[in-house]
Design a protein that fits this description.
Layout lengths: L4 H6 L12 H9 L3 H29 L4 E3 L5 E9 L2 E7 L10 H4 L15 E6 L13 E2 L12 H11 L16 E6 L3 H10 L4 E4 L1 E3 L3 E4 L2 E4 L18 H12 L4 E4 L16 E5 L2 E5 L9
Parallel strand pairs: 4-6, 4-7, 5-6, 7-11, 10-12
Antiparallel strand pairs: 1-2, 2-3, 3-8, 9-10, 12-13
Helix pairs in contact: 3-6, 6-7
């Protein structure tokens, strides 16, 4: 999970321990938001996302492929959308990094910078794979009732991300989160942009997205998958750094809702090197997952 902690805790001075988001601030955020442009686009993208997800799920069902696959870190990978009739893209949750590595402990209450930031009175919306468990480190601060689809299953990954953000550290001090008095609300990944638009139109100022499109290599169990498009390149996934439709959609929200800070994962791809050269893996060719022993580039150094 890519966390821009300084931006999260310092954005607009909104995380001071003596402050809470009030209606005046909400009204100011809404006043600076182009709600007309957002609401004009909302039904268009909602319909497109629903159609894309349905087509992707139908492709998986018709070919006997799992629509959702668990990962070793308690997350998931799911078929997400078609890039064309014979090539489908997968989305997956990403690993969380340590709060300490981004110096959160320096800006929290009692930290070395004497900023005493706590997140009290603020809610971060997270888009993830499911519902958040009411954990002992943040009892009552996982908000039920939200902007969109919350899902029906409790998610270990979403619960872990919530702990990274708002854990009090009262039970396990080392687990103390970035905003230990804050709250989280939660939605599922499936219709993220459409739901973000609705949230931003109502004054939502901060959202977290600990998931990314699967590119290059990924592994499920002991099986490697290569997610590149062999019709473009048989060795390198062209989508690394590629400005695609979802990238544009996130920019659209950011442009028209300038006080909505979007914290988005860039992925964990540098960890994925694939099997040994010539090793067996699965790859999409002609709309089918087929076995291959072709040599392809690792994702990272």
């Amino acid at each position: 999970m890519l966390i821009r902690i300084v931006a999260i805790l310092g954005s607009l001075g909104l995380m001071a321990s003596t402050m809470a988001q009030n209606q005046i601030q909400v009204d100011a955020i809404v006043g600076a938001t182009d709600t007309f442009a957002l609401q004009q686009y909302a039904p268009i993208i909602a319909n497109r996302m629903q159609s894309d997800l349905l087509l992707a799920q139908q492709w998986a069902l018709q070919n006997g492929y799992p629509a959702v696959q668990p990962t070793a870190n308690g997350g998931m990978v799911k078929v997400w959308r078609p890039l064309r009739d014979d090539f489908y893209e997968y989305m997956g949750t990403d690993n969380a990094i340590s709060v300490r590595t981004v110096s959160t402990d320096a800006v929290r209450f009692g930290g070395s910078l004497n900023l005493d930031l706590t997140g009290a009175g603020y809610t971060v919306r997270i888009w993830d794979e499911g519902m958040v468990f009411n954990h002992q480190e943040y009892p009552g601060r996982a908000v039920i009732g939200g902007i969109g689809d919350m899902g029906t299953m409790v998610s270990d990954h979403a619960t872990h991300v919530s702990g990274t953000l708002i854990s009090s550290g009262n039970i396990v001090p080392a687990s103390k989160g970035m905003a230990p008095l804050g709250r989280v609300g939660f939605e599922t990944i499936d219709f993220d942009i459409a739901e973000m638009i609705n949230g931003a139109s109502a004054g939502l100022f901060l959202s977290n997205h600990s998931y990314s499109v699967r590119m290059g290599w990924r592994i499920v169990g002991n099986t490697w998958y290569w997610e590149g498009d062999v019709t473009v390149s048989p060795t390198e996934d062209y989508r690394f750094g590629f400005y695609d439709g979802p990238s544009r959609d996130f920019d659209f929200v950011a442009f028209h809702a300038p006080y909505h800070l979007i914290v988005k994962s860039a992925g964990n791809n540098r960890q994925d090197i694939g099997p040994p050269p010539g090793g067996f893996h699965l790859v999409q060719i002609g709309g089918q997952l087929v076995g291959s022993n072709s040599i392809r580039n690792p994702d990272g150094p």
